[in-house]
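Backbone-to-sequence.
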C-alpha cells in the first residue's frame, strides 16, 4: 500500500488532533487509500518539537518549517500553526510541489487567502482547509437529505457557535485575541466553521449585515506558548493589554438561492461549550443539529402523518455517511477525533484518486470573503454584498 510522508508544522492542540487522525485513519477506513507516515513535526523550539515528535509518533523533528517544506522526502505539508503563519507556509509548500492541508481559518483575510488559492492552483497540488465539523456524519446526513430534496427549497438557515472559555476576564490574551496573529476573534476562530457549514448545506452567501462586540477590552498578557483556551488563568499581577478582535458577532445573511438566515458566534456565553448548531427550514420540512449531541440529526418532514408530526431524532450509524468505516452501532458515539479521521480520509483519497476535495482553498477563500464582509458591515453599519468585494481582489 502506498505510503505518503507528512511534514506537520505545529505541535499544539491541532497537532495532536491531526496526528491522531494519521494514526487512526487506516484503522477506520480499510483498505486505506494510503498509509500516512508521520515523518517530521516542526515547532518553534527544539524542546517543543522533540516532545511533539515523541508524543505524536513522528520519526523526526525540526525547528524550521522551511527545511521541511523543501525536504524531497516529504509529500504533504500539514499546517497546524496560528493563523498568521498559514499563508507563508502554504505558498512555500505549493511551490515545492507538496500537497497542503491547512487549519482554519485559511488566512487573515480574503486577500491573503486568494494568494494561497493562486499558489496551489498554479502548482497543481491538492489542497484542503480543515473545516472538520462538516465531516460529522449527522451534518453530512443533513447534506444528503437536502440534496435528495427531503425538506424542499430552503427558506432559512440559523447557525450558532457558542463557547464560554473566554468569558472570564482573567483568561489570558493568547494569540487568539491578537489581530495580527488571529485576523479576527470569535468570527475567524469559530464563526468561520458555521459559515463553512452554511455554504456546504445551503449554498453561497451573497450579502451580510452584522454587528460585532468586544466585551472584554483588555486581558492579562500571554507571550508565546500554546493557547490553553482559558483553562489556565493569569495571576492578578500580570500586566494587561488591549484585545483588538471581536468577542462576539451576530449577522443576518442572504443566500444565492433566495434563502435568508443568521449566524452568531461568541466565546463568552457562560454554560456553552461547543454549541455549534444549525436549524434549517425548508418548504417541506426542517432539520436541526447541535454538535453537543453530534450523533443526532433532528428531522421534521411536512408529509409525516398528522398525528405524529414533529421533530424526531435520527441517530447516525452504519446506514449513514461514512458509516462503513465508523462504529457498528448507531449512537455509540462520534467524537471530535472521528471528524478529523474522516477529513484525513477524504484528503488522502483525493490525492490518490486525483479528484477535487472540499472544503479546499477556494472554499477557504470564499469563507474569508464572508468574514471580511461581516467585519466591514459591522464597521459601516450597512449591508455588504460579497461579490462587490470579490471584484476588488485580483
Ligand atoms: P496551539 O496554540 O495549541 O498550538 C500552536 C502550535 O504551533 C504551538 O505549539 C506553537 O509553538 C506552534 N507554532 C507557532 N508558530 C510556529 C511556527 N512558525 N513554526 C512551527 N510551529 C509554530 O494552537 P491550535 O489550537 O493547535 O491552533 C492551530 C490552528 O488550528 C489555528 O489556525 C486554529 O484556528 C486551528 N484550530 C482548528 C480547530 C478545528 O476544529 N478545526 C481546533 C483548534 C484550532
Ligand atoms: C477555540 O475556540 C477552538 O479551539 C477553535 O479554535 C476551534 O476551531 C474549534 O473547533 C474549537 O474551539
Amino acid at each position: 500500500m502506498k505510503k505518503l510522508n507528512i511534514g506537520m508544522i505545529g505541535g499544539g492542540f491541532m497537532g495532536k488532533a491531526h496526528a491522531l487522525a494519521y494514526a487512526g485513519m487506516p484503522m477506520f477506513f480499510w483498505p486505506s487509500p494510503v498509509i500516512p507516515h508521520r515523518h517530521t513535526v516542526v515547532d518553534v523550539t527544539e524542546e517543543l518539537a522533540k516532545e511533539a515528535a515523541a508524543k505524536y509518533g513522528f520519526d523526526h523533528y525540526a525547528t524550521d518549517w522551511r527545511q521541511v517544506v523543501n525536504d524531497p522526502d516529504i509529500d504533504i505539508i500539514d499546517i497546524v500553526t496560528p493563523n498568521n503563519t498559514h499563508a507563508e507556509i502554504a505558498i512555500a509548500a505549493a511551490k515545492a510541489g507538496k500537497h497542503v492541508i491547512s487549519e482554519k481559518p485559511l488566512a487573515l483575510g480574503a486577500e491573503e487567502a486568494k494568494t494561497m488559492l493562486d499558489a496551489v492552483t498554479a502548482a497543481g497540488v491538492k489542497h484542503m482547509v480543515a473545516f472538520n465539523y462538516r465531516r460529522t456524519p449527522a451534518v453530512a446526513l443533513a447534506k444528503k437529505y437536502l440534496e435528495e430534496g427531503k425538506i424542499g427549497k430552503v427558506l432559512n438557515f440559523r447557525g450558532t457557535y457558542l463557547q464560554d472559555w473566554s468569558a472570564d476576564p482573567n483568561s489570558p490574551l493568547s494569540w487568539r485575541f491578537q489581530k495580527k496573529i488571529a485576523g479576527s476573534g470569535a468570527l475567524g476562530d469559530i464563526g468561520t466553521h458555521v459559515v463553512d457549514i452554511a455554504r456546504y448545506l445551503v449554498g453561497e452567501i451573497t450579502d451580510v449585515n452584522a454587528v460585532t462586540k468586544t466585551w472584554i477590552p483588555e486581558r492579562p498578557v500571554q507571550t508565546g506558548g500554546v493557547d490553553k483556551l482559558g483553562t489556565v488563568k493569569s495571576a492578578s499581577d500580570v500586566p494587561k493589554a488591549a484585545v483588538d478582535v471581536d468577542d462576539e458577532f451576530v449577522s443576518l445573511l442572504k443566500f444565492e438561492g433566495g434563502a435568508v438566515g443568521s449566524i452568531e458566534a461568541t466565546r463568552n456565553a457562560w454554560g456553552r461549550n461547543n454549541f455549534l448548531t444549525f436549524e434549517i427550514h425548508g418548504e417541506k420540512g426542517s432539520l436541526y443539529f447541535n454538535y453537543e449531541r453530534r450523533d443526532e440529526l433532528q428531522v421534521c418532514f411536512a408529509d409525516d402523518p398528522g398525528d405524529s408530526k414533529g421533530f424526531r431524532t435520527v441517530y447516525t450509524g452504519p446506514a449513514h455517511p461514512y458509516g462503513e468505516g465508523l462504529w457498528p452501532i448507531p449512537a455509540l458515539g462520534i467524537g471530535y477525533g472521528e471528524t478529523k479521521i474522516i477529513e484525513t480520509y477524504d484528503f488522502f483519497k483525493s490525492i490518490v484518486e486525483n479528484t477535487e476535495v472540499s472544503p479546499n482553498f477556494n472554499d477557504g477563500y470564499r469563507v474569508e470573503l464572508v468574514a471580511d464582509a461581516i467585519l466591514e458591515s459591522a464597521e459601516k453599519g450597512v449591508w455588504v454584498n460579497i461579490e462587490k468585494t470579490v471584484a476588488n481582489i485580483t
